[in-house]
Design goal:
ubiquinone, oxidoreductase activity, acting on NAD(P)H, quinone or similar compound as acceptor, quinone, quinone binding, transmembrane helix, mainly alpha
Amino acid sequence: MELTDIAIKFGLIVIIFGISLLVAMYSTYAERKIAAFFQDRVGPNRAGPFGILQPLADGAKMFLKEEIIPANATSFLFIVGPSLAILTACIGSAVIPWGQDLVIGDKVIPLQVTDINVGILYIFGVVSLGVYGVMIGGWASNNKYSLLGAIRAASQNISYEISMGLSIIALLLVTGTLSLGEIAKQQHGWHWNVLYQPVGFILFLVCSFAETNRTPFDLPECETELVGGYHTEYSSMKLGFYLFAEYINMFISSAVMATLYWGGYNYPGMDWVAAHVGPVAAPLIGTAIFFAKIFLFIFFFMWVRWTIPRFRYDQLMDLGWKTLIPLAIANIVVTGIVITFFN
């Protein structure tokens, strides 16, 4: 690999990292504004015009607050927990194709950090590691509420990862590849996988709510029962890391769903657009449309939070083991039959 290629890759990594943090930061603002809209309130409106600087004010508050480590906590692991949560949240973006290859002169710039042939397995591996940040933080806090939140997160993660994996198996029968880049290319134009796997998409969407600990599956941090759940004892930027990790996970989950099921950067009429706007603008338009899909999913995450009440924990487990897993298995069987006899 040439030095310029390494510089391009490094630049792409920095840009994606910056966008992830920016989206996470302003997702907090969007969450509060959307909640205010649904509850007939104004929302944040003091810091800057329409409260647009509120995330910066919140970030400054997080940085300036006192760092507190409980006397009986395991200090090293207490710091490792949020660090691992934010790390695993950020590295998931490495295999996501953000757009078609950008052609500038004789240089082809791929808008994907790396297109490994097991991209979906990579995503699942990163998601599986993310729960360790929650478990370590909850255990190291030496607080019964934190520990209960960590145990809930672990059991919830195990339950819903099975359904999510089974939903992906049906998609793999259709696409024949584990590469996210190849899956995106196969959905050229309007040939989106959601048309062929609607049940798989719904299963993946529900499991994404559970994996990101979002309402109605936010049992690990259930305030009415567990004070603050696994981050009860956290303050300052360590608490900020946990909150940022949740919003980055929501962003990455939305990007993965848009890539796997909703065409990624593809859209109807993209060939006509490419023929008329050139090889530089066309990929950027596709990237803009990809981000529009991501933001629609993020809005949906927030809409559900302020609309649907939280599940009881037994309902959460029943849904995962008794409903979603049988549905996912049935979806695999039906998909296999259709591909075998009708394709």
